[in-house]
Structures are given as structure tokens and as C-alpha cells.
User: Fold these one by one.
Assistant:
Number 1:
Amino acid sequence: MTEAVTMSNLMRALADPTRRTVFERVFDSEEISVADLTRGSGVTQGAISQHLKSLKQAGLVAERAEGRHVFYHAAPEGLEPLVTWMDHYGVFWRDRFTNLRSLLKEIDP
Amino acid sequence: MTEAVTMSNLMRALADPTRRTVFERVFDSEEISVADLTRGSGVTQGAISQHLKSLKQAGLVAERAEGRHVFYHAAPEGLEPLVTWMDHYGVFWRDRFTNLRSLLKEIDP
DNA sequence: CTAATGCATTAGTCAATGCTAATATATTTG
DNA sequence: CAAATATATTAGCATTGACTAATGCATTAG
């Protein structure tokens, strides 16, 4: 059941477009403050804080407080439950075998 | 924007536990009728039909009508947009390199 | 033909969700 | 210290979402 709960948290967190955009912006930055995330988001700072709370609970972001700032960074490991879930449906390797070869060479030439 | 809409459809479809269970049951069966899906689902037949509609719009299932029955089957290709989205976050290959080698041997021994 | 079956759709209800505006809590600055 | 800044939290509102019960529409069975 824990797995299902986790998946629901994750999927619900990612289902909202605004929140997904927040996650993408956090990921694309090394670190980013709430104010910076608010800028150009189209919603208020309060809303951004709420989205960050959801993302944090889903394990997708983490924070680092510094003075009156709070810097967020991505935690893409939080996507693992989703990967595991999808793995069951064999969608990972389908149509990806060509990439596999070049990737392997890259790792172990 | 189409991409975002697709992603939202997909994520929203998979966010609900009941609907996710429906998808899993459809996937695990070659084909399955609405009545069979309703059985043991804990919700009414109407609810199941609604979930199937969502899943269909998300591209995760397809149907085949036969007489008064409608048989559903999974369309796991519908998960591709999710795979593509996650690919951007590098979660696929992380911790999967060991599997990679054996998989490659399997493909091209 | 009539009754029964399988499924989809609709209206209505209740809970959950995303948002704003306002406020509370720190922290920094002058 | 007082004003300003950065973030979190709260209450309230409008919207969405999942569900049931009821109904409609085909199709098959008796």
C-alpha cells in the first residue's frame, strides 16, 4: 500500500501543469529561491510556496535555508517510484535499443 | 502546448488510484469487458465506464466492441510521453547500468 | 415480441484542489 | 530599533473530480 500511496503523491504532484513547471524550473537551476520561482510564474508567492510544499512531500525537491532566503533544488531520485511502476509495462527498452549501444560505449569504451 | 496537454491528461489519468488499478487490470488481461472490470473494483459500473473514458482519452487503453460487449485492451505506448518527459531528468539510466550489459547480451549475444 | 443484459451518459452530491488576499514569522538593512 | 524583505501559512472562494443512482440505448435471449 505504501507504494500506491507514494505513486499517488507523485502523480498528483506532477498532474498540475503549474506545479510541473515549478519542478522543471527548479531542476533546470542549480538552486533557486522562491522569489525567483514566483517571478514569471503567473501566480502569487503563496501559491508557489504551496506547490513547493507538495513537491517536497512527493520527494521531488529539497530545500536549503540561508538567512531569510530558502533555496530549492531538485531531487530527481524522487521520480524512482514512477520509473519502477513504468518498468512493469516494458516501456523503457522499447525503441531504445539503438541508444543503448552508444550509451554502453560511452560508459565502457 | 500539445505536449503539455498530453502530459496533463496522462498524469491526471494515472493520479487516481482506482483508475490506475483499472489500467493495471486491463494491462494484465489480454482483453477484458467492462463488467469484468467492475467486478471486485469496489465502485459501480458507471464509475468504471468513466475511468475507461479518461484512460482512453489519455491514450492508455483502446476498445473493441462485439455485440453488446465492449472489450478493452491496454495501449502502453500511451505512456511514451511520460517516458520522454522523464528522460529529460536522467532517471532512466541511473542505477541501471548493470542491467544494461545483460540486456544487450540478450539482444545481440 | 418482451425481457434481460452490457455499457455509456447524465444530474446531483461531497470532498479535494488551486488560487488569492491577508497575515504571521524570521531575518536583514538603514 | 524600525522598515523592508523573503517565505510560510491561513481562510475563503471557485472549480474540478470521483462517485452514485437513475436512465438511455443497443443487443441478445426466451
Number 2:
Amino acid sequence: MKQPLHDRIRSDYEARILSGALLPGARLPTELELMRDYACSRMTVNKALSALTAAGLIDRRKRAGTFVARPRVHSMVLDVPDLEQEVAQRGQRYRYDLLRREVRMPDPGTAEETLLAGAGPLLVLDGVHHADDVPLASEQRLISLSAVPETEGVDFAGASPGAWLLKHVPWTQAETRIAAVGADRAVAAGLNLLPGSPCLLIERRTWRGDDGITLVRQHFVGSAYDLIATFGPAKG
Amino acid sequence: MKQPLHDRIRSDYEARILSGALLPGARLPTELELMRDYACSRMTVNKALSALTAAGLIDRRKRAGTFVARPRVHSMVLDVPDLEQEVAQRGQRYRYDLLRREVRMPDPGTAEETLLAGAGPLLVLDGVHHADDVPLASEQRLISLSAVPETEGVDFAGASPGAWLLKHVPWTQAETRIAAVGADRAVAAGLNLLPGSPCLLIERRTWRGDDGITLVRQHFVGSAYDLIATFGPAKG
DNA sequence: TGGATAGTAATGTATAGACATAATTTGAGG
DNA sequence: CCTCAAATTATGTCTATACATTACTATCCA
């Protein structure tokens, strides 16, 4: 129960806002009033309110005061865990089968390849992720060798390239596209499905600064995988 | 360009961590050393490091020091815009057709219904979202009338219930599940597809505090819709 | 009436110091 | 050599104060 005072102030108002007792637009007491309420110095109050500001729960305007923020409607946090960990957490055995490995120059006619690697060489890795020997996802990956030359010497047979990259290559930006598609012939063959079966397509590009690192396209068996995104404090 | 000093310290080290110049486990200078580096007081240094701690970029241990945090949690920001706005932004005409409206008690055998509304009544709304008169998504929605009694008097024929709720009912928590499924008979009929066609399933629950507000299940035509999630500064 | 100007109330940033807390290192005694 | 206690070091919390910044308010003068 040794809760710091600034944390108590913060959680007091966090609770009131999250419970709806303080509705969006409602005004909070000024720092001076809170100093009196909690019998503490202004810096302590300020630390609590700064934390709420950073969390996006309140808006503060000089001279005007402190107000409950409108919830940011359409941004949620999407957790994209590492596949190997994910499978292990479900208590299943993970395996990655490398089907193709190839170094080539980008096709100047394919925008996504030149966008990733400029004029530099590409490492192409195709494979399938398994959970308990059942195919879970098929993966086509491009890695820019000029951005990550050390990948050329790595043996990816067996280890997922995603996990290797995550551990060895820090990145600063990423973009993920999520869609539902029918499996084409190649994907269906890799996943042991009928062509046209619904698959969750996850396409991710990552950058470090301005340099493209990798572009990966994963097709998940629709019936075996889903994603969860959340907003606000954890629920269940 | 009037950047506060604590913010400059924070962004200096944020940049070094994100760029990989400081690898996970690396030790940062102590607060005393940073005071000298930046010629400022300890509180200023502390504010910068507290922000990095809150952002999960560093770990701090008493006596031991400050270290770059271990694994970068792979979480991204998912934008789930309002469908009506989304369609309008593409320059298309939006329409929502209400197919069913019904008030009933939750089925005690269906966990998701009692979880949403407890023992209170449910408003059931089924409909289809159109873009330029082409079906885009089919929607099955449950609303807890005890949490939002005012919905009972609203005429949802024509206006999307999602947009109405967003505007009138503040919520504090939400969870979204994303999956790829084949269209069942009912969904296929509403979307004018063949049964089994790949659809992006988006299932969202929202709460205010501990009270469930709404549970919505949307099936998007796979070929016509996708989601984008990003991490880091905007790219393209 | 209207418009510049001074006042004022709120947040934003920063300082210098104090004591609390936790973990590691060191030292004393067995 | 081992163990327990004390010193050390770095972070954690808090105070009291100061001045900066911003935007709203009121006032004065044309």
C-alpha cells in the first residue's frame, strides 16, 4: 500500500474518467485546488496531471484549465506477437520450413521491390510456419541486403526469419496491412488447403530511418488464427 | 523551435535507442552525469527519464542504474475509422440499410449476450453498409439497453448505429477481434456474394467502466476492404 | 462603439535541496 | 570461508519557490 502520492492523485482521476463519473469536456480542479485537496506541493500535482496528459486522458490549456479529453475514437493498440512465441504459448510445437532462398536484384517494374531496397540486392525467403506440424501460415519475405548485409550469412532453415530480424535488427517504423483473401494455388498448396479458402493476409513493411528493411506477406489459415486489438485498460 | 530541455534530453536518448545506437541492455548515464552533460537540475533529467520509462524504452533499478529495455513489444496503432467517413473519403456515396430491429432479453445460454448486458434487455440491429449502392459490409449489432436506454427511441433506419453510438455514448474500453472467415449463407445473401467467399470479420466489444455497451460483428467483402496499422512516425 | 493595452489566472518549465528506498559492495566477526 | 551488518550509490518522491507562457478579462481612451 506504499503508493506514491502523485500516483494516487493520478489513479483517482483516471478512475473517475474511465468510470464515466467525469464525462469528456468536464473540467478538473486547478493545480492550486488539488494542492489543497491533497495537501501537497504543486510539483506533485503536476506530475500526476502530466501522466494523465501523456496517456491522452486529459487536455490542458493555459489560463483555461484542465479538461477530460474526448476518447480518441479510432485508434487501438494491435499486438502482433512473434509467431514462434505465440505458438509456444498455446502449448504447441513450432516449426518453420524454408522453401526457397534466393538473392537477386529488385525488379524495376515492381514498385514495392524498388521501394524497399532501392537499387540494392534482395534476399528472398519463402517458407511455411507450422504449429504441431499443421501448417499455420505461409510467408513470402523480402529483405534488403544493403540495409541488413549480415542476413546473407544466416542459415534460416529451421528458424523463423521474423524472429531473427526482430532480435538482431532494430527498426523505427512499420506499417501493417490486414485483409481477407482467398488462397491462391501456391498458398493453398503450402497450407494444405483448397484454393479459395479464406486466409488472413498480413503484409508488413519495416524501416530503419529512411531505409527499408523488410517486406513480408503472411497468409494465415482463416480458421486457425485471429488478431486482437484493444483500447483502454485490460479487460478480461 | 523552443523545445523544453527535458524534452530534448528525452528525444536525444529516444533517438539513440530507436536507431540502435544504444542496444538493449546498454547502460545510460546516471542522473548526476546527465545533470553535468546538460547543465541542468536533477528534476529536469528525471522528467526526461520518467517519460522514457513510461514509454517502455528504458528500465531503471535503484543503485544499479538505467538500461535500455529488453524486447521491443511489438504493438502497433490500428486505425479503425468510422465506416461512413471512410466511404465518403473515397468519394463514394454511403448508405446503411436496416434489416432487422428487435428488443429482447439475452439468451442465458449465450455467454456473449449475458456478458454484454447481464440480465437487462438487448436491442438487436442487423443491417448492411453500402458504398455507391454496392454492399460493403454486413453488420450484426447488440446494444445493452440498460447501459444506453436512449437508443430505444432512436430511428436507425438510414443512419449507421456505429456512428450514432460513437457520437452519443462515451466509452472507455474496447476490444476488437480480426479474422478471416468464409461468408455463411445469411452474410453471403446480404453482401451479394457466393457462400464461402473470404470476408474480413471484425468483432468489437465496447464498455464504459464495467458496463458492456455494444457488441458488433461486421463482415467485410474481402476484396473491397483492408485495415492499416502503423508504428512510429508516419511514412508515405 | 470599438480597439489597443494592461492585468490576471491558469499551465509549463526549471531550480536546489531534502529525505526515502532499494540494491550492491564492503567490512567485521564468527 | 561464510554470514550478517553497515556503508555506498543510484533512483524515487517531495517541497518550496521562481519565472515563462498563454489566453482570457477588464479597462481605458479615441
